[in-house]
Amino acid sequence: MFSVTSTRERVTRDRRHVVPDTNVLLRVLRDAPAAAAFHGFVRRRARWLALAAPVEMELRAGARTAAAGIVTEQLMRAVARDDRRFVPSALAYNEAGRVLAALGGREGVDVGGARGSLTTDVLIAVTCREHDALLVTENAADFARIQRHVRGFRYTTSWPM
Question: What CATH homologous superfamily does 7-156 map to?
Answer without folding.
Answer: 5'-nuclease (3.40.50.1010)
